[in-house]
Amino acid sequence: MLEVNSIRCYYCGACASVCPLNLIDVLDEAIKVREGCTDCGLCENTCPVGAIKIAEE
Description:
Elements: E1 2-4, H1 14-18, E2 24-27, E3 30-33, H2 42-46, E4 52-54
Antiparallel strand pairs: 1-4, 2-3
């Protein structure tokens, strides 16, 4: 499960551009991750400000 730090995130879209399943939507001031995310970590590794973390359930 993805956790997005909304204070650090500036909604650049880098995470959405690397999602292999196209499940990340960048809205005006929110990141929406649709069902089906496999927690592959590409978005976490790509985020230029470290605003995304893969959380363990």
